[in-house]
Amino acid sequence: MSGFDEGDSSADAPSCSLHHQQRLVRGGEASSKNNLVGKKTPDSANNSQTTNKLCSTGISTALELCRKCEKGKTFPEHSTKTGESVVISPGYVLSRTKSRVHATLCDEFFGHPHDTVQVVERHVPEHKVEDLVVDLQNQISQLVQMLEEERCNQVTIRTKYVTEIVEESKELKRQHEEEISIVEEKHSAEIQQLQIHFKEKLKVQMVDAQQQYDELKDQLDFLDATFVTYKETIIEEMNENWSKKEEGFRRGSTKVKDKELFEQKQVLLNIFEQEKETLETKNQNEITFLKEHHEREIQEVTTKYNAMFELVGQLEKADQHIEDLRIKLAEKTQALELQSIHLKEVEVALRAANIEILEYQKNFDAKVSEVDDKYWNYIHFLLNQNIDLRHRLTLVSADLCAAQATVEEKHKRWKQQVESMAQQKYEEGSEEASPPPARPAIPPRSRMGSTVSKSPPAPPSTCLRKGRPYDEMKPLPTCEHAYDHLRESNADIPDLRVEGHKAP
């Protein structure tokens, strides 16, 4: 390469470097023209040799900014290269080595103070300016004519050189063809012998290649057989490993399933036990309250109406109601016993299920081979069903709480109504009992309160259970009634009290 790099060439470079570059370019153009024309002049030969050397060795002029004042030590003048260096101006150093030419610009070159020359304006007359303009125009026209003449001369020279080159190339081509034909005539017999020799050699090589192909084919068949056996052994090992992994996964899944079932069982048993205890405590409290209240009322009635024989029938009626209550209590105790029996049956069923699970776990290894992809689907089905059962359990518990709240509200309302009715009846009975006491005929009454014969009304028995008369007493709702009510409202809930019923 000759001249400056593309990115570093600018107007800041001095005129001497530009003249040097122009000289190199002109020398290269002249050498190329001389080579095209074919004239072997000494100047053109020297120029061509120098340009070829420059192009081959990669000589280039680099414009580098020296940071000598700031960071410096990475530039040619600081390196170990030996060569000539010329200081052209302050801050501008030109150095040359065997393979490169370096132009170095320091900060001094850019910061060098320039001599300030005062420009003195001179008044030039107009006629002199016009004369100068005319002279310049004449010079420009002469230069244009000279350029046109040079261009015409170059065109003629170029056409002349082109015609000469074409003629010389045709002559060289004709000579080359003649030489080739002579060489072909000389060596035609040798070429035929070589072709025959090559054909025989090719046949021998084909036979050798066929033998090698047969040997390689036999080796390939042997390798295929060995690979098949190796593949079968690897497949067997992989199947064994997969079977072991599947067995481990199944054992883990069964453990997790058993653990979750046991936890759910414990939760349900705790809930049932709590409900049972609450019901027992409520019933016991009601019974004790009824007994105490009944005793107090009997004492009050005996003190107030000791002289009145009208209360005998009412007391008998109260005795009948007490017997009815006892019968109801016996029924409730029977219901509780049935519930306890049902719970025992559930426990027995759970024990049997646990025994079946244990037997299944013992025989699990024998049944592993019978399990297929449906087993995983069944696991997912059980998990989804478990989630649904939990959701239903929460809904059932919420419904039970709501039902209990509604029952308590109804109980309060009913209690208020009964107290108001009992108060009205008591006031009516006290107003009618104001005349002197007489022993009226006491009409017998049935359990439902229907009279057999008409007679004056007797004062009602105020043996209440929290202000509730015996005729209108009803059994409190139990867990079974609430459960039946929930099953009537939601048909999706299964009846767990049925014998032989198993949860899916």
Describe this structure in words.
With 504 residues, this protein is mainly alpha-helical. Among the domains are: 1-113, no CATH class; 254-489, no CATH class. The chain has eight helices and four strands, in the order H-H-E-E-E-E-H-H-H-H-H-H. Helix 1 packs across helix 2. The longest helix is centred in the middle third of the chain and has 179 residues, at 126-304.
Summed up, the helix count is: 8
For the termini, the CA-CA separation is: 92 Å
Helix/strand-derived category reads mainly alpha
3D shape: elongated
- H/E element string? HHEEEEHHHHHH
Q: What percent of residues are in strands?
A: under 5%
Record the SSE blueprint:
Elements lengths: L14 H23 L4 H16 L3 E5 L18 E6 L2 E5 L4 E5 L1 H5 L14 H179 L6 H52 L1 H4 L5 H60 L46 H11 L15
Parallel strand pairs: 1-4
Antiparallel strand pairs: 2-3, 3-4
InterPro entries: FLACC1 (IPR026674)
Keywords: Coiled coil
GO cellular component, one term: cytoplasm
What descriptors fit this protein?
single chain; 504 residues; mainly alpha; 4-stranded mixed beta sheet; 8 helices; 4% strand; elongated; disordered N terminus; FLACC1; coiled coil
